[in-house]
Specification:
It is a single chain. This protein has 275 residues and is α/β, with parallel strands linked by helices. The chain has 11 helices and 8 strands. The chain has an 8-stranded mixed sheet, sandwiched between helices. Helix 3 crosses helix 5 and helix 5 crosses helix 6. The longest helix is centred in the last third of the chain and has 28 residues.
């Protein structure tokens, strides 16, 4: 049993911002620093599952949909049921298209917002960190992820930050905080796909920090644009195994350390306040 597991929902309703890539490489980065990590694929497309090498998602006997169904029906299960182990030291609860059906079932389920939280409460004791890779929507599965999370990480392309989209996402997070999960907070905006060769990328990065830093945290680490980040999914590896010396790998290593440092700082602050 771990002392304190921190659950992160990696979320943005816009697709193509690097959510799954971040889940894989932040997870492996944390594992390389000695942490026990569970990755949860909460997207029916199964991108996270494929990225880790389980490409035939339809052949998986047990997925997140299975476990949420058991949680809805109050059926008993072992905490480790359905969890796959990856050679790079992280565990995975996979997903496939069946999760789309689960989202529809949740609409008529009692305590429908707490189903993932109830399942995860029986699982997370074995881990230091749980990273939930959310689908690009604000539907019931994503609301469940936020209800189960301690913090939200928001990956954002450095050259594109639509004010309307961000406003809607932050409103949703705040609504979940008020009504379902008082401890939920924004862990940070993560700038991704940063093309450091262009002046516009540098300008946008500076503008995002200037405009949002006062209202929510922004990670110091920035994830560069790199072809290797897209290539890793074909090999079922993280960047740490595929291209360990690249700038993007170093950026994810820095992000993992920053996440751990932030957790330590927050724990010390809580301890000081409680005295």
């Amino acid at each position: 049993m771990r002392d304190k597991c921190i659950v992160y929902a990696i979320i943005n309703q816009k697709g193509g911002v690097g959510k799954s890539t971040t889940a894989v490489n932040l997870g492996v980065g944390l594992a390389r620093l000695g942490k026990k990590v569970l990755l949860v694929d909460a997207d029916p497309q199964g991108d996270l599952t494929c990225c880790l090498g389980w490409t035939d998602t339809d052949a998986l006997g047990v997925t997140l949909a299975t476990m949420l169904d058991k949680s809805m029906k109050d059926e008993p299960f072992k905490p480790s049921e359905g969890i796959l182990s990856h050679c790079e030291g992280v565990d995975l609860m996979p997903a496939n298209i069946e999760l789309s059906g689960t989202e529809m079932l949740l609409v008529t389920t009692m305590s429908r917002d707490r189903v993932m939280k109830d399942w995860l409460s029986k699982v997370k004791g074995a881990y230091d960190y749980v990273l939930i890779d959310c689908m690009p929507s604000l539907g019931m599965i994503t609301i469940n992820a936020l209800a189960a999370a301690d913090q939200a990480i928001i990956p954002v392309q450095s050259h594109y930050l639509p004010a309307k989209g961000m406003t809607q996402l932050v409103k949703t997070i705040n609504k979940v905080k008020r009504n379902l999960n008082p401890k939920l907070r924004i862990g940070g905006i993560l700038l991704t796909l940063v093309d450091s060769r262009t002046n516009i990328a540098k300008t946008m990065s500076a503008e995002i920090r200037a405009n949002y830093a006062s209202s929510m945290p922004i990670f110091k680490a920035e994830i560069p644009l790199a072809v290797s980040a897209a290539e890793t999914s074909m090999f079922g590896k993280s960047l740490f195994s595929y291209d360990k010396d690249s700038k993007v790998t170093q950026a994810y290593a820095a992000l993992a350390k920053e996440v751990i440092d932030n957790a330590k700082t927050r724990a010390k602050t809580k301890a000081t306040i409680s005295r």
